[in-house]
Task: structure prediction
Amino acid sequence: MKVAEIDVERARREFFARSARIVARDLIGCLLVHDLEGERLVGRIVEVEAYESRGDAASHSARGPTPRNASMFGPPGHAYVYLSYGVHCCFNVVTADAGVGEAVLVRALEPLRGLESMRSRRGAVADVDLCRGPGRLSRALGFELEHDGLDLVRGPIGIHVPTRMSRPRVDRGPRIGITKSVELPWRFVERGSRHASR
DNA sequence: GGAATGATGTACT
DNA sequence: GTACATCATTCCG
Result:
């Protein structure tokens, strides 16, 4: 591997090695990519939530490591995928440092590429709803439990930070669907996005 | 072993 | 707006 490639990889890993709330904010506008069955599926991240390790009772990591949340305590820049309500897969990006237990839940995407493939997995829904919700986007992009722990720098799932993008306007507020630590304003949404949930 | 609980989505009134 | 499917995980005993 060339020196330049090593530098790029280090920079990509350091992006995730920060607190979840900081990474969460920066993920708005980034591209979530899945190379699946010879096709590249792409969505633009428009809604996320940060789950931290200290003082966050809503985080899966709040009571320490368990078999389910093990990858949340693993190295940053890896996936944490879990089953919600026994039905839906939810996709997170592990942040901070290994052993800490922080992650960012990706809640909604603006579908950009591979829409036909997304439609085939999602059934008869409007395109604006293809990836509007954490369970929905996992279904649309083909995320499964087997992707839990995957290294997002190596693929086939990855996150692209656009080199040239106007910094999106981001609104911040309480997270959705939780009953603990409801006051923490760690949900980030691109202002005015029609692809966000709610 | 048993019971409660979801970081949800869909259907229905 | 409300109802509920559905099951792995977690906690308690």
Q: What stands out?
A: The first helix of chain A runs from residue 3 to 16. The radius of gyration of chain A is 16 Å. The CA atoms of residues 121 and 140 of chain A lie 6 Å apart.
